[in-house]
């Protein structure tokens, strides 16, 4: 883990060479939400390829850049593209940027993603605030020797998502008059979408939505004592009894179409951070 801390410091130092902005909020932009980074003012954009230790982002709809600047007056750092396990990344690699963001000064993490709606009440385009998650990736970024400088050996996971900031996100949905659910996200390894039997199983396990990201990042945030808010956009309905086909393009398109709602929620979280 000492090696990991060194890598974190080297990435953070490379970022500091490009800008002296000290971000307070870190934002991980999921599929369809990359456009939020275009609203960041005074932006410095750094392609991942220009930073040490970072792999290329290969996922559809993920630009692969770090964008630093101000959003509604708040200094932020946004990941325009993340590292998924299905791209061949380890859980540790997929979560490393959480520690880099903390090293840069971030004190709150906002995570967004696209997810399949398992709860039969959920419709394409609805946002879901994560109340909790189930780690079905069978990977954990904290496996290995723990670095006590980064966080404790056995982090508590009884409340991985910040309730007060989540309330601020929900209040934005009420104010702007759109439906927003609060539910449980099942983190899957991917890259296949689930079978009908798997969606049925996930529903029985208590999941409301399924996706292929977020869980390693939320675990790292908890390890690093960073309050975390996570918001899914429901991009496909996964009723086992009438399951249609799903594709990556459909997911990106649906997330893009609904991105205004999630943007409003992210901005409400920024305002609540104060
Ligand atoms: O980065 P996210 O989670 O938004 O990526 C999307 C959703 C799934 O994880 C994956 C397949 O649709 O891409
Ligand atoms: O149905 C899904 N399953 C897993 N990941 C997803 N990402 C978008 N939709 C889905």
From TrEMBL:
Extract one GO BP annotation from the record: nucleoside metabolic process
Keyword Mitochondrion assigned: no
EC category name: transferase
Which pathway is this protein assigned to?
A: Purine metabolism; purine nucleoside salvage
The positions annotated for binding phosphate are: 31, 62, 82-84, 114, 213
GO MF terms here are: purine-nucleoside phosphorylase activity
Q: Where is the Nucleoside phosphorylase domain?
A: 24-271
Residues involved in a purine D-ribonucleoside binding: 194, 236
Q: What is its EC number?
A: 2.4.2.1
**Cellular component terms, GO, for this chain's entry?**
cytoplasm
Which UniProt keyword terms apply here? Answer: Glycosyltransferase, Transferase
Recorded hits in Pfam families, A to Z, give: PNP_UDP_1
List, alphabetically, the Gene3D superfamilies matched.
Answer: Nucleoside phosphorylase domain
UniProt function note? The purine nucleoside phosphorylases catalyze the phosphorolytic breakdown of the N-glycosidic bond in the beta-(deoxy)ribonucleoside molecules, with the formation of the corresponding free purine bases and pentose-1-phosphate.
Write out the similarity annotation.
Belongs to the PNP/MTAP phosphorylase family.
NCBIfam families found in the cross-reference section: PNPH, PNPH-PUNA-XAPA, PRK08202.1
By what name is this protein known? Purine nucleoside phosphorylase
Q: Which organism is it from?
A: Pseudobythopirellula maris
Gene label: punA_1
């Amino acid at each position: 883990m000492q090696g990991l801390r060194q890598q974190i410091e080297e990435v953070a130092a490379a970022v500091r060479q490009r800008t002296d902005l000290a971000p307070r909020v870190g934002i991980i932009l999921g599929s369809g939400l990359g456009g939020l980074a275009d609203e960041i003012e005074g932006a410095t954009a750094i392609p991942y390829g220009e930073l040490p230790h970072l792999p290329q982002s290969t996922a559809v709809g993920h630009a692969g850049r770090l964008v630093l600047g101000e959003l509604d007056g708040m200094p932020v750092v946004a990941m325009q593209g993340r590292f998924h396990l299905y791209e061949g990344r380890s859980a540790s690699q997929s979560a490393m940027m959480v520690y880099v963001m903390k090293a840069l000064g971030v004190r709150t993490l906002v995570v967004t993603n696209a997810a399949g709606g398992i709860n039969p009440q959920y419709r394409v385009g609805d946002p879901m605030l994560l109340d909790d998650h189930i780690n079905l990736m069978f990977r954990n970024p904290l496996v290995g020797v723990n670095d006590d400088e980064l966080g404790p050996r056995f982090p508590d996971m009884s409340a991985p998502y910040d309730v007060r900031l989540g309330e601020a996100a929900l209040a934005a949905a009420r104010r702007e008059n759109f439906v927003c659910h609060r539910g449980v996200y099942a983190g899957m390894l991917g890259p296949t979408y689930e079978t009908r039997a798997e969606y049925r199983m996930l529903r029985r396990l208590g999941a409301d939505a399924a996706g292929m990201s977020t869980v390693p990042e939320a675990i790292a945030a908890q390890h690093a004592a960073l309050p975390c808010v996570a918001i899914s956009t429901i991009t496909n309905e996964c009723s086992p009894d009438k399951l249609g086909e799903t594709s990556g393009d459909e997911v990106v398109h649906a997330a893009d179409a609904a991105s205004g709602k999630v943007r409003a929620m992210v901005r409400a979280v920024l305002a609540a951070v104060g």
